[in-house]
Structure formats: structure tokens, C-alpha cells
Specification:
The structure is a single chain. With 361 residues, the protein is mainly α. It contains 15 helices and no strands. The chain has 2 domains: 191 residues, no CATH class; 157 residues, Arc Repressor Mutant, subunit A (Orthogonal Bundle), CATH 1.10.10.60. α4 packs antiparallel against α5 and α10 packs across α11. About 7% of the residues have low confidence.
Length: 361
């Protein structure tokens, strides 16, 4: 909203001034144009919140304003214009602004490259994921093109001695931004971002199924560990969450089990419920709720059982023919051999050595 508001305001007062519709907001006054640099960190924060489920406002984000405030202050204090801060004269501002904008373009690129463009592990909402992926590529290209227009405008204005406003190439930037706004207008669902917000985003992949098909699906997905229908106090917060994700429970169970048995997510020692949620692209509260009400065992027990099942498959596959029991413990996600030994015996009633001996016999 801040990005759209700033862009709209900028072109409104540029255009209204040039058309002679107002004389109060003067876009060629120079100094106030520096405040439009807030777009750079705003774009970074937009992409950051687009791909990660975080609260809408964080006071730590205010650190992104420090450079803009610094630049505004040194330009507003005339005595500093002849100091070392302006070593390159008027072109100093061009260099500082260019470095500032390029810095944010680089960290935006790194963020999107890691979290969206080359991300392979999002198991839910493939349609929406691709929608957001294509949108971020499109919008990032728009950001680069607009940045180039700003660089050309500033360079021209500094070189010719005009009052700096960044409007020399504004007509091209306006076209780029209009195309971005039109994209949002025809595909408003891209504003949801990647995290699955309750049940709304799951509708992208939902297909209607009848009661008989649903029973078959449940029987295929739910093992001895999971239960589908649970009773929760109606006035509780969990009950409200239940209403939002009830139709998605089977999908969640299926994907969590797939992470365990096919993706081997628990081979990492520090996997938590929030890591599961991030991998699936769902809110952490959904996974916490899933294990709290629909699992017969705790998340810790589920993780331990998954690791031991992984160990059993590795033993059957001949892992111990070339590796040690300690290596098996580390491979399946345990921090050391001792907790692996205890967990293995509590689940199989055998020690790892005895189980391996029985399998050989």
C-alpha cells in the first residue's frame, strides 16, 4: 500500500504541476524528491513479506530509513555542502543514491533467488506458487527498468545543473509502473503472497470430491498416528482455527508424512514445526494445531519415530555394510549415538546391533 501510494502521489503532483493545476507542491524543488527513495527499502520489505509469514509491522524495519534521513539532512544543511561529504560536488548525491538503490536491488535479487525463483520444496499450492513466482520476476524487471530511468534522470539533472527531481525520464517510469498496476488489477490474488492464509489459498488446488472419494482418500493417507475428526471447545481460539483449516487436514497429513518418508526432512538435527510449516508454505500455527489435535503422539515423538523408521530402511538397504552405527545415528538426524540407541530400542525393542544381527540371519 505504501509503494502504490507513494508512486501515485509522485506522478499526481508531477503531472498536476506541469499542467498548471497547482503551485504548492513543486516537484522541481529538489530536496523533497529524496524522500521518494523510501521506495527502495519498501520494495525489499514487500518481497520479504511476500515470501515469509511474518507480522505486518516490525519496528526493526525502521533501520531502512536511516540512510534516507542521513541523505536528507546533509543536503538540507548548507554548511556541509563544502565539506568532505560532498567530495565529488553535486555528483556526490548521484553516487550515493545509485549505491543505495543498487544495494536494495541486489538484496532483493538474492532474496527472490533463494526463496522463490529456484525453490523446489514447496509442496502445496503449486498453482499459486507459480503465479507468485512469475509475478516477482515480472515486478523485479519493472523495478530494474524504473531504477535505470531514475539513474538517467539524476545523471542528466546533476550534469546540467537543473534542480534535482528525477523527472527527466519520468514518462518511461510511469509506463512501467502502469503495467505493474494493471498486472495487479487483472491478477489480484498475487497480493496474497506465498504463505497459505487459512483456507483461502488452498482453493487454488482444490477439486470437489464426493463423500465416498473422501473416505477412500482419508483411508489411504491416515495411518495409525493420525485422526481426522476432533472435538474442540467452541469458544476457544483453536476452534476458530479449526473452522479455517478443517478441509485441509488430510492434505496437511499427507504432505507431512511425505516430508518424513520421501524428503527425509528429519535427517536435519534441528527440524522444528516452524521448519515444517516453512517448507510446506503454510502458517506455523497450522502445523502446531495439526500435531496438537490430529496426531496421537507429540511432534517430538513423531520426529523420533520417523528417524528410526528411516534408520530401519537404511539398515535393510545395506547401509551398515560400509558404515558404522554412529554414522547411522548422524545420518538419521540424531546428535549422537546414545539418544539414537535409546530411541531405537524403545521403538523396536532391539538394540541396533541386535536388530542388524537378526536381519542378517
Amino acid at each position: 500500500m505504501l509503494i502504490i501510494s507513494v508512486i501515485s502521489f509522485r506522478y499526481f503532483f508531477h503531472g498536476s504541476y506541469d499542467l498548471g493545476l497547482q503551485a504548492v507542491l513543486k516537484p522541481d524543488s529538489g530536496l523533497y524528491s529524496l524522500l521518494f527513495l523510501i521506495l527502495a527499502p519498501s520494495l525489499y520489505l514487500y518481497y520479504k513479506h511476500l515470501v515469509n509469514q511474518k507480522k505486518a509491522y516490525d519496528s526493526k524495519d525502521l533501520k531502512h530509513l536511516f540512510f534516507i534521513i542521513f541523505l536528507y539532512l546533509i543536503n538540507s544543511i548548507e554548511v556541509l555542502h563544502n565539506s568532505f561529504l560532498f567530495y565529488f560536488g553535486a555528483m556526490t548525491n548521484f553516487y550515493l543514491i545509485s549505491i543505495f538503490v543498487i544495494f536494495y536491488l541486489v538484496i532483493i535479487f538474492n532474496l527472490l533467488k533463494k526463496e522463490v525463483w529456484f525453490r523446489k520444496n514447496l509442496l502445496l499450492n503449486k498453482h499459486h506458487f507459480n503465479l507468485v513466482k512469475n509475478w516477482t520476476i515480472y515486478f523485479f524487471v519493472i523495478n530494474i527498468l524504473c531504477s535505470i530511468m531514475v539513474f538517467i534522470s539524476l545523471y542528466t539533472e546533476f550534469k546540467t545543473g537543473e534542480k534535482v527531481s528525477g523527472k527527466t525520464m519520468a514518462v518511461f517510469s510511469m509506463i512501467f509502473w502502469l503495467s505493474a498496476f494493471f498486472k495487479i488489477l487483472i491478477s489480484p490474488e498475487i497480493l496474497y503472497g506465498l504463505p497459505i492464509l487459512n483456507k483461502t489459498l488452498l482453493k487454488f488446488n482444490e477439486t470437489p470430491i464426493n463423500k465416498k472419494e473422501r473416505v477412500t482418500l482419508v483411508n489411504n493417507v491416515v495411518g495409525n498416528n493420525w485422526v481426522i475428526e476432533v472435538a474442540i471447545k467452541e469458544d476457544s481460539q483453536d476452534h476458530r482455527l479449526q473452522e479455517n483449516i478443517r478441509t485441509n487436514i488430510v492434505s496437511y497429513i499427507k504432505e507431512v508424512d511425505k516430508l518424513s518418508t520421501e524428503k527425509f526432512i528429519f535427517r536435519s538435527q534441528k527440524v522444528s514445526q516452524s521448519d515444517i510449516a516453512e517448507t510446506l508454505g503454510v502458517p506455523t500455527s497450522h502445523i502446531v494445531y495439526l500435531f496438537k489435535y490430529h496426531s496421537k503422539i507429540s511432534f517430538t515423538e513423531y520426529r523420533k519415530n520417523s528417524r528410526i523408521q528411516d534408520a530401519l530402511k537404511l539398515i535393510e538397504g545395506g547401509f551398515l555394510n560400509t558404515e558404522t552405527f554412529e554414522s547411522l545415528a548422524y545420518k538419521t538426524g540424531f546428535a549422537s549415538y546414545n539418544p539414537f540407541f535409546i530411541a531405537f530400542k524403545s521403538i523396536t525393542t532391539y538394540s541396533p546391533q541386535d536388530y542388524n544381527k537378526v536381519k542378517k540371519e
